[in-house]
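Weekly puzzle thread! Below is a chain. First person to post its structure in token form gets bragging rights.
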Amino acid sequence: MMLSSMKKWIKWILKKKGFVLQTFVPEHSPCAMLEKFICKYEIDLILDVGANIGQFSRGIRENGYKGKIISYEPLSAAYDSLLENSKNDSLWTIYDKCAIGSYKGFVDINISANSVSSSILSIMKLHVESAPTSAYIATERVRIETLDSVALEAAQEFKNIFIKIDTQGFEWEVLDGAQKIMRLARAIQLEVSLEPLYEGTKLWKDIVARLENEGFSVFALYPAFCSPETGRILQCDILFVKN
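Winning reply:
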């Protein structure tokens, strides 16, 4: 079979299974886009806020990042998996189990069936309709800290800090508690909502305006969560770079 014919056959088989075969280049892949960015800006520390079981950090490791990672996760079950997934990586540190926000104390976090949609905030109807497994099934009392209190000291020895925040509508509060470390950051990536998905959350326009006021500009956008019925983007990741 000729190479071109074999490639068409493989693409057809993958499409039948719901997959699309594409060249791993920035135009086609958010992972490739982020890989290029991390290399270009010589990122040497990533603060992974809202790590869940380590999906983000494992992804950037697989795409070539060799620097330091510090992850933060509040949920007990996800935290245990995070520890397991990071155990063979000497440059990946898992901070003590806690949520990250704007104050120090304790807070109740709502646990979703799919784990990744868990949030301190109440979930809204649109979110559950678009992703039924996002519905809450339990709550857990957790410690809450500010990013300045848990990361500022460790960050001092690094030059190019990347802060990733994925806290399901609680991003604004995380920023409130990260004023000092934001001054040191080279880049910040946040998951933001285009429509209200959690009660009281700030939408993407508010986040963009705030980060621009803090001296950052939008570098890239990656779709994160779409309505399966309409294809409408409900959440996306926005990467900001300090001007």
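Puzzle host: Confirmed. Bonus trivia for everyone else. The chain has a mean pLDDT of 91.
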